[in-house]
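step=predict obj=Surfactin synthase thioesterase subunit n=206
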Amino acid sequence: MLAVQYPGRQDRRAEPCIETVEVLADRIVTALGPWVGDKPLALLGHSMGATLAFEVARGLERRGTAPVALFASGRRAPSRYRDDQVHLRDDDGIVAELQLLSGTDSRLLGNEDLLRLVIPVIRADYKAVETYRCEPGAQVSCPITVLVGDSDPKATIEEARAWSEHTTGAFDLQVYPGGHFYLSTHQDEVTDLISARLTGYSPPRG
């Protein structure tokens, strides 16, 4: 299992943040070079990470190393645009957005020193995903499984279902009770689902 660590965070905090999905995806495709080819690769992304995983999958396909599956969690389809401008808000506005999503530790939201450190990073993420525009007709050939909470303010069920337009392979939609961070209470179920989908690399049809 490989985890992507974005620039500007943790052990990469000295590096400048990347503010476009496309550039970040290109960097990830390059970094994955030694890991793809003769080894099957599946991609999982949550929220902005789902959009990013889609663009990484497209980049890998262009290089002839398509992933065997894409799992997109907590995100509407790339072609479903909303005119959100969270990245243009002041710091209080960004904190309010984090509170709405209910996935950020309240101790962080109440610590002004920590907030000063993380808000620029969060703002960069919002800028990347809010300014992203999906190429018309963009698709991947690998199966896509979409995971979403039934009360996610960032992705309605229909917006999540629209991921089906972005694959020529199989499509599956799984809906869980919860909001944007439904994963916190359904981790075991999601892990079991992914394991089942990847067994023998034979995703569901339909």
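step=describe
The chain is about 40% helix and 10% strand.
step=end
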